[in-house]
């Protein structure tokens, strides 16, 4: 259903579906524009193989856990993600976001009999709620200024937002949604949650859930708050660059399969943030073509990462159930025992390594090209920020 909705919306105009109106909270409206549709499409492309894999994978837990409950949690989690991406008012968005976060906690905490699982799940939940508090403050500031909780009304009033309010909303929203996206410096929950989560939950976590943080950043700073602030773009660019380099450095020394993939998620979310930061800078400097180029690179890389990472997490689950270990040092020669699994891992790794002709190469090449456009910008400080980000990316 999400795939159909996304494909239909990508080819049409924005649609709105008013559901009900509450005197205290305003009107609850569902709708989708092309930004929502892109994230819905990514969600659907990841969800289909995850559910197909879960049907067989969850049998591994049948002796200890209620597998029907895990499947139900994943289904409701997917529904909450769809609602989060299509809600067009502040309170509806925050409500569906909290439902999604709670279901994500339940999905990760499925193997609750293991000693490490409750602690990892709690860390993830606390981090998520801390980020949600910042999101709440940012959205309430926008709603108070607009005099409405509807996203369309907030966007229409953005031109009259003063610099102080704009900066407050940017800082609160970027670092609030950055928690869910696994951006620096709030990415520590990812390598804790992934090793204890079932493989399907990990695939949804890195293939879909972290994308919602990116969605929130783009929705507020490119739609609800279209204010020219080049310094804000520089912050996003450099935060993404530092997160990317930290993620890849930790990944190079990791030997636990799923924890390595978690650090890779941190790296790739940093790359996506770099593209968003570049887009914000170009837009503020009245370079719409370069801004579109950078944003397209970021969203395309988000798609490629989601496909590759969900494929690799499902492969990690298959390796674990087949061999009983995720220690990479103990998995030598696996290609002879499971050649088909080695093939899927190879495809996922090629995408993450940005090797041609994979989509990962296309998105990272486009991202590099957008960073190189900084040579045509006048401010030396902005050029320096691009140089630092490009050096860290290399």
UniProtKB/TrEMBL annotation:
Keywords: Cell membrane, Membrane, Oxidoreductase, Transmembrane, Transmembrane helix. InterPro entries: ComplexI-like_HydComp (IPR052175), NADH_UbQ_OxRdtase (IPR003918), ND/Mrp_TM (IPR001750). One of its GO terms (cellular component) is plasma membrane. Signal peptide: none annotated. The keyword Secreted does not apply. One of its GO terms (molecular function) is NADH dehydrogenase (ubiquinone) activity. It is found in: Cell membrane. It is a multi-pass membrane protein. GO terms for biological process: ATP synthesis coupled electron transport. This is NADH dehydrogenase (Quinone).
């Amino acid at each position: 259903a999400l795939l159909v909705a996304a494909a239909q919306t990508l080819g049409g105009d924005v649609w709105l579906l008013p559901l009900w109106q509450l005197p205290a909270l305003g009107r609850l409206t569902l709708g989708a524009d092309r930004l929502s549709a892109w994230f819905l499409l990514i969600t659907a492309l990841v969800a289909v193989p995850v559910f197909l894999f879960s049907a067989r994978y969850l049998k591994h837990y049948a002796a200890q856990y209620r597998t029907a409950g895990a499947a139900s949690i994943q289904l409701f989690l997917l529904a909450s993600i769809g609602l989060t991406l299509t809600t067009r008012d502040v309170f509806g968005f925050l409500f569906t976001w909290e439902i999604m976060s709670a279901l994500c906690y339940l999905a990760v905490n499925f193997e609750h009999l293991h000693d490490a699982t409750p602690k990892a799940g709690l860390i993830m939940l606390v981090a998520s709620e801390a980020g949600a508090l910042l999101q709440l403050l940012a959205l309430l500031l926008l709603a108070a200024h607009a005099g409405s909780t509807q996203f369309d009304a907030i966007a229409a009033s953005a031109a009259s937002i003063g610099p102080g309010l704009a900066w407050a909303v940017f800082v609160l929203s970027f670092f609030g949604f950055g928690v869910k996206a696994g951006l620096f410096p709030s990415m520590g929950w990812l390598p804790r949650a992934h090793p204890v989560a079932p493989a399907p939950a990990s695939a949804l976590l890195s293939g879909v859930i972290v994308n919602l943080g990116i969605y929130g950043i783009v929705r507020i700073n490119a739609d609800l708050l279209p204010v020219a602030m080049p310094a804000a773009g520089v912050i996003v660019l450099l935060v993404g660059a530092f997160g990317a380099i930290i993620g890849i450095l930790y990944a190079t020394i990791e030997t636990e399969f799923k924890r390595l993939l978690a650090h890779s998620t941190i790296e790739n979310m940093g790359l996506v943030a770099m593209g968003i930061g570049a887009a914000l800078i170009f837009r503020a400097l009245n370079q719409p073509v370069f801004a579109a180029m950078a944003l397209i690179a970021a969203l395309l890389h988000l798609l490629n990462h989601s496909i590759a990472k969900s494929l690799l997490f499902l492969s990690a689950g298959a390796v674990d159930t087949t061999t009983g270990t995720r220690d990479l040092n103990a998995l030598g020669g696996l290609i002879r025992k499971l050649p088909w699994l080695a093939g899927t891992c190879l495809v996922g790794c090629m995408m993450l390594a940005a090797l041609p002709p994979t989509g990962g190469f296309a998105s990272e090449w486009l991202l590099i090209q957008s960073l190189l456009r900084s040579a045509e910008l006048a401010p030396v400080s902005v050029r320096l920020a691009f140089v630092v980000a490009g050096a860290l990316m290399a």
